[in-house]
Write a structure and sequence with these properties.
The chain is an alpha+beta fold. The chain folds into 3 domains: 87 residues, no CATH class; 102 residues, no CATH class; 191 residues, no CATH class. It is built from 10 helices and 14 strands. It has a 7-stranded antiparallel sheet. A hairpin with a 6-residue loop joins strand 13 and strand 14. The longest helix is centred in the N-terminal third of the chain and has 37 residues.
Length: 441
């Protein structure tokens, strides 16, 4: 491996900003969101009626030709909308073409997921507070570093500077593919999908290695292969801390006149529900900010980062811990490390979920038969080592990143190693999805 070689690639990145539309612009934005929802529901109703009629004919013994079924692909739905839009929505020209293209794209994707067995039959979208609409690249661009120009709506001010994206567009290293305008809790955001021409450095030599043990009491515990404790991030428990405030806001909302069939929600309900949504958004933003700060620091400062390939979907089936696991967002932490290590030339190693990192002594390598979650200190009966459970696990993980180990990535090694055959050395309860016990708790 040449330590200074680089590769130029085109990557897709997202840039999200809070915007400050005028009252007139808010009305137009909501028209676009509502137009997309209306087109989605209209097309879904047409497809559903067509399928019901064809099934009834087949049940009656009448042969149904293939062309009698409505095409649920993107272009098929676009043609269907152009045939019925004048009758179904005489006002359709008030919104841009991207509004209805967004509806057909979403519905086509929903039908694709249904046909492939990944989802149920699409549901109708309910009219409510908030929503989103996706606008294609030619219809949106940056007027300057503080204004976004959207077709049919005009220039919208952003709360923060967009200079990072603006510079990419100025020097030709960025191209806006699409932008999604979203209303949530009374606030509007715009999220750009951008193709960035980026220089990716070659993987660095594995000199600085860190193992990260993910937990609930301590969110991230980091150690080097020699056992040096180099990272400890306490779990801020964003959702748990906001539960009391959230419950209070939800109680107030429940006493207001909310949306019902044939009944519009009151203004007091809208304000109360807005406070609920703002609380949720605050929790999500605080959680995401901490993860971004930690993952960026790790990807920049360490050559090899070792984490466990945890089965988060299986862990949340444990009702006693599901809320805390979701609040910790381990999956998002791993997802961000996946692409950031590529950006900065570091390497991510995922250790098999059955590797007994918590039960293995980091000094003599003896594996305990059992280790309950309430035992926060690791005590080895063989060599007498007494060490924090998380630090012990992080040290064991770091050693899995050393060159020459079963999962280590030496120069030119793989980022994600193959599954290791460690079941024989791991206790069945270690990181198991069938039992409440999991690694790094």
């Amino acid at each position: 491996m040449t330590g200074h070689s680089t590769t130029t690639v085109v990557v897709t990145r997202a840039f999200s900003y809070v915007i400050d539309p005028t009252p007139a612009q808010i009305s137009m934005l909501r028209s676009h969101v509502g137009g997309s929802r209306f087109a989605y529901n209209t097309l879904l109703a047409l497809v559903k009626d067509n399928w019901d009629d064809n099934r009834a004919k087949k049940d009656a013994g009448i042969e149904v030709a293939k062309e009698d079924w409505i095409d649920t692909g993107h272009f098929g739905l676009l043609y269907l909308w152009s045939e019925h839009r004048d009758e179904a929505a005489p006002w359709w020209a008030e919104n841009g073409s991207s509004t209805y293209n967004d509806a057909t794209l979403r519905l086509a994707k929903a039908f694709t997921n249904f046909h492939k067995g990944r989802a149920k039959f699409p549901n109708f979208k309910r009219k409510g507070q908030g929503g989103s609409v996706r606008i294609m690249g030619p219809a949106v661009h940056l007027a300057d570093s503080h204004h976004v120009r959207v077709a049919r709506i005009g220039e919208i001010k952003t709360y923060e500077s967009t200079r990072k994206l603006y510079r990419h567009l100025e020097r030709g290293t960025g191209k806006i593919v699409a932008a999604t305008l979203t209303e949530r809790g009374g606030k509007w955001t715009i999220s750009f999908t951008v193709e960035i021409t980026q220089t990716i450095p070659a993987p660095r030599a594995p000199e600085r290695i860190i193992g990260i043990d993910l937990g609930i009491t301590t969110l991230y515990t980091g150690a080097t292969p020699d056992g040096e404790h180099v990272l400890e991030v306490e779990n801020p428990r964003h959702y748990v801390r906001a539960e009391k405030k959230l419950a209070h806001a939800q109680r107030i909302t429940s006493r207001r006149q909310g949306p019902k069939k044939g009944v519009a929600p009151s203004n007091r309900w809208k304000k109360a529900n807005g406070r609920v949504q703002q609380t949720h958004a605050g929790v999500a933003n605080a959680r995401k900010n901490l993860i971004h700060e930690t993952t960026t620091m790790l990807a920049k400062n360490y050559d090899v980062i070792v984490i466990e390939d945890l089965n988060v979907a299986g862990m949340v089936k444990n009702r006693a811990l599901a809320k805390h696991i979701e609040d910790a967002a381990w999956g998002e932490f791993a997802r961000q490390l996946e692409y950031k290590t590529t950006w900065y030339g570091s390497t991510l190693v995922r250790v098999d979920r059955f590797y007994p990192s918590s039960k293995t002594c980091s000094q003599c390598r003896t594996v305990k038969a059992t280790l309950s979650l309430d035992q926060r200190t690791y005590q080895c009966g063989a060599c007498g080592l007494v060490l924090g459970r998380d630090l012990n696990a992080a040290t064991n993980l770091a050693r899995q990143g050393l060159p020459g180990t079963s999962s280590g990535t030496g120069r030119g090694g793989e980022v994600r190693p193959a599954q290791q055959n460690l079941v024989a050395t791991a206790h069945p309860d270690e990181a198991s999805t069938e039992t409440p016990t999991f690694v790094g708790a």
